[in-house]
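Hey, can you fold this one?
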Amino acid sequence: MLRVTIRKTVAMGAAEQGVRVLGGYCPSVGIAGGYVQSGGHGPLAASYGMAADNTLEFEVVTVDGKHLVASLTQKSDLYWALSGGGGGNYVVVLPLTTKAYPDGPTAGASLAFINTDLERYLLAIGAFNRRLLSFNSIPGFATSWGFDNQDFFLNVATLPGGSQATMRTALDPFVQELTDMKITLALYNTTIHDTFYDHFMHYDFPPEIYATNATIGGRIIPTSTVRDNLPDLLDIYRTILWTPLTPANASAQSL
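Sure. Predicted structure:
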C-alpha cells in the first residue's frame, strides 16, 4: 500500500518500488482530492476496479479543525462517504492510503482516422462502439477515446500484462472493418513498455481534457446503451457534432 497525493508523482514513485497504483488519465490529477471522492476511473480500472474501491484509509481535517483518519475500522461512515460520494462534500482530504499492485509489462496502442464522408464516418464510429463490447471481455483492457466532427482518436488503449501481439489481436478486426468501409487510418501503432509508468508517460492521457472550452458531461457509456440502443446513441452523436455553431466533441473511457 502507498500514501498518495498527485497522479504523476505517485505513478513514478510506485514504479520505483516495483508496483503500480490506480490514478486518473491526466498526470496532474490530485488523487487524494476529488478524483477518489468521485469514484476514480482511469487506465487501470479495468484491471483493479475504481480507485475508490482500492482506498484503505483517508487522513482528513474536518470543518471544525479535527484531524482524523477514516477507514473501514474507524470513522467508517465517513470512509464510505468519501469513497465515491463526491469531491469536497464532507472534509478536506490530506493524503490517502491505497492498495498497490505488482508492476510489469504494459501493452498500449493508439489509432485515429479522419472524417472524409459524414455517413461513413458515423458508421465507423458505430463500428468502434460495437467493438467495445468485445474489448470488455478482455481482462484488464481499457480504452480512452474521443471524436469530433473532424476526426476520431483512440488516444490510448491499455492492457497490463499484454503484448503487442495481443493488442493487435484485439484491434485488428476493427482495422479490417475500416478497410472494408474504405476508411484510411491516419494513425495505428502498438507498444510494449516494461512498467505501467513508462506506458503512462508515453501516451497523451487524454488530449481533449486540456481544451479550455471543453465541458465534459460524462465519460462512462453503459454497456447496455451500446448493446441495445446503438442507433439512438449514434443519432445523439450526429445531433451534437453536426448541429451548426455547437462547440462539442465526444469522449469516453471504456464501457
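DSSP finds nine helices and eleven strands in the chain. Let me know if you want another pass with a different chain boundary.
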